[in-house]
Amino acid sequence: KAKAMGKGQYHVFDPTLHQKALKRLTLETALRKAIEHQEFLVHYQPIINLQTGKISGFEALVRWQHPQKGLVSPGEFIPICEETGLINDIGYWVFQQACNQLKIWQQTLKNDRLKISINLSVRQFSQMNLMEKVAETVTKTKISPQSLTMEITESALIDNPTHARTLLHEIRDQDIHISLDDFGTGYSSLSYLHTLPIDILKIDRSFINPLSQEESDLGLIPPIIQIGQTLKMKVVAEGIETPEQLEILRKLQCDFGQGYWFAKPLNIREATALLQSNPQW
Ligand code: C2E
Ligand code: MG
Ligand code: MG
Ligand code: MG
Fold first, then answer.
1. Is the complex ipTM higher than 0.90?
2. Using CA atoms, how far apart are residues 182 and 205, in angstroms rounded to an integer?
3. CA-based Rg of the chain, rounded to a whole angstrom?
4. Residue 182 CA: which ligand 1 atom is closest?
5. Which residue numbers delimit the EAL domain (predicted)?
6. pTM to 2 decimals?
7. 254, burial (CB in 10 Å: exposed 0-12, middle 13-18, buried 19+)
8. 205 touches 242 (CB < 8 A)
9. Mean pLDDT across the stretch 81-109?
10. DSSP H helical ranges for 78-197
């Protein structure tokens, strides 16, 4: 083949490409083992009702408890799980864990209104029996589907518009809520969004980050909240890190908030303690 390219031309061996491929393969192998050895765990970050200050629920966020590296964040392994399809197993496992935990909290706290949000990847869209399995788990754990929210990123919708529409309707048919994650970072048209069964807009933290008391520039946050209100969707602000940001968002009538100012993602013990010492609605 090299010959066909003509005299004097060679395939150049690219060491960085080789290294990347090797690293990827190593990670993939490690991830398969991690599934087998059940090295994943779920952390829970509270979502706060900004008007009452009470805990509305939690977002379930997966972590990998690596035997050598310790706790690995999803940004480091979710992309490869999506590429390889491993996300189907991991994603469904997270969903089951979150449902079981929600049931435990609802029972021990005697509060059926506590909610859980679970992230759903693009790749999981093409999982044939995903919604059947979801329905099975909901029935088995006896939680109300209305206490569940599936978070889907705006970019996932744009990448798979046809598939996304079908899946979103399947979720809605089960009375599970739908949240549009990282809203504002994709380029979905508002007329398209308007035709989808979306309940919640989650403003990406890149919009919240620059907010401070001194600056009067609120950026795109007011129009985004306005869009949510017009489309009859609830609005969640992610990445609230300061009391100033919280105050601004509260004044702008943003419904819910999430961020380090309230709490980082917590393990079950910490989240339970938080629930026991704080009011929920
Ligand atoms: P996301 O769904 O947008 O989740 C919010 C991320 O922002 C979390 O990162 C959270 O720890 C972080 N965060 C929350 N508050 C703050 C804050 O005040 N400041 C800053 N700087 N960051 C904050 P995490 O846990 O590393 O997750 C990253 C992403 O990985 C998630 O983004 C989500 O897209 C994905 N992910 C996590 N768990 C799952 C899962 O079970 N399934 C799938 N498919 N994706 C997941
Ligand atoms: Mg999310
Ligand atoms: Mg998000
Ligand atoms: Mg985000």
1. yes
2. 7
3. 21
4. 3
5. 24-279
6. 0.92
7. buried
8. no
9. 95
10. 78-84, 87-108, 130-141, 154-159, 161-173, 190-194
